[in-house]
Amino acid sequence: MMTNDSASQSYKELPQRDYYQALYEATLTISSSLELDQVLQSVVTSITKAMQVKACGLRLLDPESGQLRLSAVYGLSNEYLAKGPVNITHSQIDSEALKGTPVHIADVRTDPRFQYRDAARTEGLVSVLCAPLEVRGEAIGVMRVYTDQPTNFTEDDKQFLSMLASLAGLAIENARLYEGIRSSYDGVMNAFWGTHPSH
Q1: Does 9 score more than 60 pLDDT?
Q2: How would you classify the pairing of strands 67-74 and 86-87?
Q3: Looking at the chain, which terminus has fewer C-beta neighbours within 10 angstroms, N or C?
Q4: Superfamily of 18-148+156-175 according to CATH
């Protein structure tokens, strides 16, 4: 993050945005659907448009491999997405965010905390803001937004992204609970009909 006035003059803040409307729409989407893929795709699309950034991506942590697997994305090319796996041991921005606070990188083309700097340059990415995705206080992934020009993210930007990441985490938890309940129900019904054959 830029720390002095002279250095920050070439960096801009994002234009004024209506975060309340975007938050309201995202909440409606999450509360009205249990189709997780659809909900998460809607969230990353809403974030991209509300923040007026180039792209947004959501990755979930695979604890066994240490990789962050892409679950939803808007605004990034297939070529960029095929750059290779994102591993928390090689991606400091993500490992920092997974500790519980948003992380801002002013220029991912040169910052060593970003794993794929050359790919970011080719894609036209400059600044990135990364927020943790948490369920019950446990980090399960990250939400990133990308800009195509140097950007200073404000506290409002960070709070908005964090809130949407929390809502996405809630959607994931709801979907998992629903799937668990449905599996239990199916198991009970199968057991019931298995011991009560029709006459």
Answers
A1: no
A2: antiparallel
A3: C
A4: GAF domain (3.30.450.40)
